[in-house]
Specification:
Number of helices: 5
Bound molecules: zinc ion
Radius of gyration: 26 Å
Strand content: 35-45%
Low-confidence stretches: none
Largest sheet: 6 strands, mixed
Distance between the termini: 88 Å
Shape: rod-shaped
Length: 175
């Protein structure tokens, strides 16, 4: 058995505790703005419940994303606790509908061995922002000259002045 897999048969009266470092490739995530990712640190425990198992876990990792506005690479950290219920895959489709009702995410296994990687990767996908921003109010790049406006205004910004200011300047020129 792989070290990053949990053997559910070994969960007896005591919870089965686990701690793993999963190394992942960027291609496993397949998200355009993700530039780098650390190993995923996953810890937690599995206990027996009626008809299956309950997994509670903490997933910690960090990565580098590209800001969608200013294109700078920035650090992204994620630390989350999540729960999952594990059930043997039911033979009947109707039963499956029954089991997935409820708030907890359900995971169905064919063999009583659960690999941590697919579970962790799904959480990573969910944690990644659709529109990454280096800071909530990132000013982005000037569409004219391409300057990073977070570093200060560019020459174009000064030219596109407030029309009221333009009127004042016109007045002053007349004086
Ligand atoms: Zn930015
Ligand atoms: Zn500019």
């Amino acid at each position: 058995m792989k070290p990053d897999a949990l053997s559910l048969d070994s969960v007896l009266d005591e919870p089965l505790r686990f701690a793993s470092e999963l190394s992942v490739g960027l291609d496993a995530i397949d998200r355009e703005p993700l530039l780098a990712i650390s190993p995923l640190s996953i810890t937690g425990e599995v206990v027996r419940i009626e008809g299956g198992y309950a997994l509670s876990s903490r997933l910690v990792w960090e990565g580098q994303l590209e800001c969608s506005r200013c294109l700078v690479a920035y650090r992204f950290e994620s630390s989350e606790d999540f729960g999952l219920v594990l059930y043997p895959r039911p033979a009947e489709a109707a039963e499956e509908v029954e089991l997935t009702r409820g708030d907890l995410d359900a995971f169905f296994y064919d063999e009583p061995v659960v690999e941590l990687s697919p579970i962790a990767l799904e959480r990573v996908q969910m944690a990644l922002p659709m529109k990454p921003l280096c800071q909530p109010d990132c000013k982005g790049l000037c569409p004219e000259c391409g300057k990073d406006l977070n570093a200060g205004p560019c020459a174009c910004a000064r030219e596109a002045a407030d029309p009221r200011w333009e009127a004042l300047r016109a007045l002053r020129e007349k004086v």
